[in-house]
Amino acid sequence: MKIVVIGSGAIGGLVAAYLKEKGEDVYLVGRKEAVDVINSSGIKVSGVRGEHKVLVTAHSQVISKPDLAILAVKTQDIEYALKDNAAFLKDSLVLTTQNGVAADEITAKYILKDRIISSIVMFGSTYLEPGLIVHNFEGGWIIGRPFEKGTDQKLIDVSLVLDEIFPTTISDDIMGMKYMKIFVNANNCIPAILGLSMQEAFGDLDVSRVSIGIWKEGFDIMCKSGINLVSLPGFPLENITKMICIPPAQAAGIFSGIMLKLSKDPLYGSILQSIKRGRRSEVDYINGAFVGLAKKIGMKAPLNTKLIELVHAVEETGQFFTKAELLSFTKGLCD
Length: 335
Prior knowledge:
The protein is an alpha/beta fold. It contains 15 helices and 12 strands. An 8-stranded mixed beta sheet has the order 5-2-1-6-7-8-11-12, sandwiched between helices. α9 crosses α11 (248-260), α9 (205-225) crosses α13 (283-296) and α13 runs antiparallel to α14.
């Protein structure tokens, strides 16, 4: 396959480097500052698979028609990326990788639905600077058709390529899994509000209790919206249902222990990584998914609404909040 990875951040940079190492015909599309560094020095990856330096060709735009385009920009940047490159992508398979559930509908404005493959990334990485990526933890890659059921040859072909670098499975209900993945990502807003790593933020049990509150509120909204949540590999639905049913202090302790062991390197969620780069975050597509569903059924989502407000305040001012301020703002919203 001829492959283009659009987006040179944590996921795009890692995927392009690993595919190139496997001998795939791949090039990267990114912003000019990243393109210049990558063409000069390659992509340097450290983390769970050791240190790698991979020479990958990078461009500011798509320069030739690919068989597969891996869309690794943030959800809010999809339209910009597709508008700029539509002429080369209209007949290609396009694989979305974004958190939340909005990416495929946005992509469908520019790409025929039968050419769109949705995916869920379960591995973790951190963007440090252009061309410098930390691969924090391993995980699978799940793909499926967002607008129809079943498996087809194109899905199989894509899965075989991706499986070279991460264990890849095909899902018959990718959207049920994508709604489930929102719970995995929903706590990324907290380190972003505090300006801390996951380990620093969730080492505090009171802060971890806010995370359990996010899950409780989100799960209630999903249930009342009639959303069918589908378990993810390594993250079954029972992880949520059990945690929201046991005493909050006990749940917070369990959650904190999990987060502290997730990566030996400092782990920064996707929302904070965007803020550190001076970019808009994807919080409106993660926690905002809970808020949007709540509005549709006449409910409120006060905790997630407040956390989104705090993330936007950090984006606008560049000033992070203290743990005490976070706990004050969310008092009474977590139970």
